[in-house]
UniProtKB/TrEMBL annotation:
It comes from Hibiscus syriacus (Rose of Sharon). Transmembrane segments: none annotated. It is found in: Secreted. Residues 383-473 form the PA domain. This is Subtilisin-like protease SBT1.7. The keyword Protease applies. PANTHER family: PROPROTEIN CONVERTASE SUBTILISIN/KEXIN. One of its GO terms (molecular function) is serine-type endopeptidase activity. Keywords: Glycoprotein, Hydrolase, Protease, Secreted, Serine protease, Signal.
């Protein structure tokens, strides 16, 4: 006899609800890593150390777990922080987190965040190579040893880039250490690599124990990224450096006299915020002057961004922080690391290229790029069958993307295969073609990449081409059953024009957290950069690549960031009294916005002129930054006043004030009043507000008696008035203020861009201007 259907439904629903409750309860009890920020000044006198107090707080909220019943009085702490940040990283469940948030002395509880890596010619391109400039930089460098902390995947100490020949003893103020482990011993540190540490507790808490048989649980770098960035910052000169014959020359870092401290925070499965935070905290205590951080996570508010909070603390201690902008371009609003106390670096090309070409059976030759150098070479005078597995020339599909298992060997064997960019790594596509029997690959850009060409060290003959030419090649292959082609490789070409060009992948503004802070700050070389490499991995980073090289060519804002970090080290050596904000100002106000053919900088993704949302203040110009004339200085209190305009609660603000007694004096009428080297004006929806006035204060770092006059770009939508129109300085380090008023004239539907320049006949102190109109309600 059939059961009552209503009764059956009731039983099913009851079971489902019970199961959902059990799962929900289980999730709420699951332990995860949280970063707990504490108000150190609130510690009761009964505790002898902050760590003792932190531990007591955690134990007071922890559930009676089995381990406690068994007598293990665990507090779940995996890190304690005491320099750039006060608090701990600990394993907690959701219920414990909620209880902890109610405790006195707890400023914030932030969930663990996963961060991603933003993955020779550049010194000369930046004007650092000629002997006359080398002598300028060398003055007094020995008197002011600069140490750059690099947070990355570790370091390969055997590289010639880390040779310490001729270097003076390690500075006495240095408190760092050389941690040991598999493949890394004390002797691997020297006068160049002055420190090496590892941070993995957060990573292991999230992913499980590191397999020490397959991964170095030590500062040794098996990924290559950290070695590359460290060498770019401060690598010693290495003659004859090259990648399989490409880019032959002398490789050197931006600041070859600076020291390197490697902080390994990234592992096979990623980089975690608790580890990064611990590394920043430790680096500040060790005594670094510069922090170079080529990684980023998802953008979040200032009070929920643990890296923003930690780097605020580093800035307070006088440490300059440079971070990569991210590789989310050309999409707008794709920036990471946008806090105003961080120097956010986008990527550009240099005047060096690695040309290659595709010769079609139709007789047409198409230009591309490649770093292929293998035993397989296609004959220039022979045409090979050409095949494209996609259905049309504009919409990629799994086969056209050459994803694993999508190519039929019966179709592609012996042929050159056209592969669309996207989904899988570029070099991996070549391996798929090779495994299926293909003899070569043409890698075609899609709309996301436009005409920007990035060279790769391919595993079979391969050439990358732009989107438009890619469409033409695909159309030829689809419309001609007997389509053929061959590939040629032309080595290294210098003097490319125009350059620099803003890289298509470089993340773009505007800064969605605070429109009034224009980001990125600057751009620097980040495309096809040659630097030292790990001995553990082939140049393509593909596991099947058994080639081993001493140097590799990489692209990404990960590569542009250490260029700025190195230049900052040079500026710190020449001007040891400059604050991090003064160094940033010098880099920004001397940056250039025209290429080597005197045209405005171009955006590789559109081939049109780029804007400050793409290039920030412009491309760095180290020699000019050495003597900027004026700087816009910003103190820790000034940055805190900026945070006071960001609608943060008193508790959220406390995360930044820590024990330094910073408080809101409400000196800034708006976020745009921060003494930032760039100017971003945001007209509100309320059309009754017709004029916006911003204030700036310039500090004279040039000759004592200096007189500057101002020049401002014309705008369609506003009139601009600067008062006073001249600044007359009578002594060095004198500060003079001015105000800029923007009055509505004809509101525009799109942002307008221009610049403000103070001139004294020698210096040109330029601030980019962005004007945005919010749509009326």
């Amino acid at each position: 006899m059939a059961e009552n259907p209503v009764k059956c439904l009731f039983l099913v629903l009851t079971s489902y609800l019970y199961f959902a409750f059990v799962v929900s309860e289980s999730n709420s009890l699951m332990k995860k890593t949280y970063i707990v920020q504490m108000d150190k000044s609130a510690m009761p006198a009964s505790f002898s150390t902050p760590l003792e107090w932190y531990s007591s707080k955690l134990k007071s909220v922890m559930s009676k777990t089995q381990s406690q019943v068994d007598g293990n009085d665990e507090d779940g702490i995996i890190y304690s922080y005491q320099n750039a940040f006060h608090g701990v990283a600990a394993q907690l469940n959701e219920k414990e987190v909620e209880r902890l948030k109610e405790e006195d002395g707890v400023d914030a509880v932030l969930p663990e965040t996963e961060y991603q890596l933003h993955t020779t010619r550049s010194p000369m391109f930046l004007g650092l190579e000629p002997e006359e400039s080398a002598s300028i930089w060398s003055q007094k460098l020995a008197d002011h040893d600069v140490i750059v902390g690099v947070l990355d995947t570790g370091i390969w100490p055997e590289s010639g880039s880390f040779n310490d020949t001729g270097m003076t003893p390690v500075p006495s103020h240095w408190k760092g250490a050389c941690e040991t482990g598999r493949g890394f011993q004390k002797h691997h540190c020297n006068r160049k690599i002055v420190g090496a540490r590892v941070f993995y507790r957060g990573y292991e808490a999230a992913t499980g124990k590191i397999n020490e048989k397959t991964e170095y649980k030590s500062p040794r770098d098996q990924d290559g990224h950290g070695t590359h960035t460290a060498a770019t910052v401060a690598g010693s000169p290495v003659r004859g450096a090259n990648l399989l014959g490409y880019a032959y020359g002398t490789a050197r870092g931006m600041a070859p006299g600076a020291r390197i401290a490697a902080y390994k925070v990234c592992w096979t499965g990623g980089c975690f915020s608790s580890d990064i935070l611990s590394a920043v905290d430790r680096a500040v205590a060790d005594g670094v002057n510069i922090l170079s951080i080529s990684l980023g996570g998802g953008a979040s508010s200032y009070s929920h961004d643990s890296l923003a909070i930690a780097t605020f603390g580093a800035m307070e201690m006088g440490v300059f922080v440079s971070c990569s902008a991210g590789n989310g371009g050309p999409d707008p609003v794709s920036l990471t690391n946008v806090s105003p106390w961080i120097t956010t670096v986008g990527a550009s090309t240099m005047d060096r290229d690695f040309p290659a070409s595709v010769k079609l059976g139709s007789g047409r030759t198409i230009a591309g790029v490649s770093l292929y150098k293998g035993r397989r070479f296609l004959q220039a005078n022979k045409q090979y069958p050409l095949v494209y597995m996609g259905s049309n020339s504009s919409s990629p599909d799994p086969s056209s993307l050459c994803l694993e298992g999508t190519l039929d060997p019966h179709i592609v064997s012996g042929k050159i295969v056209i592969c669309d960019r996207g989904i899988s790594p570029r070099v991996q596509k070549g391996q798929v073609v090779k495994d299926a029997g293909g003899v070569g690959m043409i890698l075609t850009n899609t709309a996301a990449n436009g005409e920007e060409l990035v060279a790769d060290c391919h595993l079979l003959p391969a050439v990358a081409v732009g989107e438009m030419e890619g469409k033409a090649i695909k159309h030829y292959a689809l419309s001609n059953r007997r389509a053929t082609a061959t590939l040629e490789f032309r080595g290294t070409r210098l003097g490319v024009r125009p350059s620099p060009v803003v890289a298509a992948f470089s993340s773009r503004g505007p800064n969605f957290l605070t429109l009034e802070i224009l980001k990125p700050d600057v751009i620097a070389p980040g495309v096809n950069i040659l630097a030292a490499w790990t001995g553990e991995l082939g140049p393509s980073s593909v596991p099947t690549d058994h080639r081993r090289v001493g140097f590799n060519i990489l692209s990404g804002t990960s590569m542009s960031c250490p260029h700025v970090s190195g230049i900052a080290a040079l500026l710190k050596a020449r001007h040891p009294d400059w604050s991090p904000a003064a160094i940033k100002s010098a880099l920004m106000t001397t940056a250039y916005v025209h290429d080597n053919i005197h045209n405005p900088l171009v955006d590789a993704s559109t081939a049109a002129a780029s804007t400050p949302y793409d290039h920030g203040a412009g491309h760095i110009n180290p020699l000019k930054a050495l003597d900027p004339g004026l700087v816009y200085d910003i103190s820790a209190q000034d940055y805190f006043e900026f945070l006071c305009t960001q609608k943060l609660t008193a508790m959220q603000l406390k995360a930044f004030s820590k024990s330094s007694n910073l408080s809101c004096h409400h000196k800034l009428s708006s976020p745009g009043d921060l003494n930032y080297p760039a100017i971003s004006v945001v007209f509100p929806e309320d059309t009754a507000i017709s004029t916006l006035t911003l204030h700036r204060t310039a500090t004279n770092v040039g000759p004592p008696n200096s007189s500057y006059h101002v020049v401002v770009s014309p705008f369609k939508g506003v009139t601009v008035d600067v008062e006073p129109k001249s600044l007359k300085f009578s002594r060095r380090n004198q500060k003079l203020s001015y105000k800029i008023s923007f009055t509505r004239r004809s509101p525009q539907t799109m942002p307008e861009f221009g610049g403000l320049i103070w001139k004294d006949g020698v210096h040109k102190v330029r601030s980019p201007i962005a004007i945005t109109w919010l749509a009326p309600l």
